[in-house]
Every structure is written in structure tokens, then in C-alpha cells.
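Final report, closing paragraph on structural work. Over the funding period we assembled a curated collection of sequence-structure pairs, and we close with a single example.
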Amino acid sequence: MKHTTRLLLAGVAAAIAGVAVAGAATTMVTGQDGPVRCEIEADTVRGATRLTGIVHTDTSISGTYRFKVEGGGRAGRSNISQGGAFAAEPGDAFRLGQVMVGNNGGVHDATLELNVMGTTYSCDAHIGAI
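Its predicted structure, as stored:
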């Protein structure tokens, strides 16, 4: 069984850049409702965009994950893939992967895919201009 959620962060790069002067901005993208939920968080750290894959669960789970970020801007392109095994407990926001990319007007697509006991959960986010 596969659960997929596609989400768009329209203009997040512009919003992050505008708030970065005053402090760190955080945008959270949350996946489907249910016992296992995924999230992609985007915020600004020292002028760069940090993307973090997060899983939430209502029960103890274990499985594998893949966090992939592709895209780029004026400074070049990124094609980053992280993954491995994980275990998470209920009530915790368990961080699975983290990527730093340039905050120079670029566009990035992030995907967090979880495989938990034969079921695949997926969250997608588009960060930057439409």
C-alpha cells in the first residue's frame, strides 16, 4: 500500500529571505493523516535554506527512509539523497535527514519516503518560486 502527499510551498524562498533579516523562518509541510505521518520542514540558517525530513507516529515503528532533494539556482545544481534505517516512538518528532542548500532564488524539490512494515508513505515539497 502506498500513501502519497504532494505539497507546494509557493514562494517559500521569497518568504524565507524576507524573514531571514529579522530571524529564522520555519515552514512545515505535513503529510497525510493517520498513524504514520511525514513532514518536510524548511527554515533559514545563516543565509542558507535547511530542509529536514521528519516522521510522526502514533505507535512504535521501524523501517527505512529516503530523503531526496533536487534543484538549484544561480550557484549551481543539487542532487542529494540520504537514507537508512530508523525507529521512532509515538509523541516524538523524529528527524530523519537534513540538507542545506543555497538561498539564492533557486528552486528545490524535496521528497521524504518512508517504508514501514511494507507500507510506503511519501511527502513531496516544492521550495522556491513556482
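Residues 1 and 119 are 5 Å apart (CA to CA). The chain has one domain: 2-128. We thank the funder for supporting this effort.
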